[in-house]
Amino acid sequence: MEELSIRVKIADRYYRLFVEPESEAVVREAAKLIQDELNQYRDLGINDTQEALARIAFDCLITKLRGERQMQRLQQMVFDKITQLDQVVTPAITT
């Protein structure tokens, strides 16, 4: 599939990216979210772009790790429920 060449603005700089057409909206949304968070940090008085971007990266990783841990807990809950169901159903169908 052919990639699109797009320009996105991140931290007051433009970047040319090559993306799959179905990813364009997500990439543009991500760039907008970074810019919005950068503006929030600037509103808090953090005017150093590098510091603000480092904090944004840190915040993103915290969110990612929390999501991964929540997914692991949910997967374990599903596995536990399937195991319980298997223990109930197996004797019923083998007799």
From TrEMBL:
Highest taxon listed in the record's lineage: Bacteria
GO terms classed as biological process: cell division
SUPFAM superfamilies (UniProt xref): Cell division protein ZapA-like (SSF102829)
Keywords: Cell cycle, Cell division
Protein name: Cell division protein ZapA
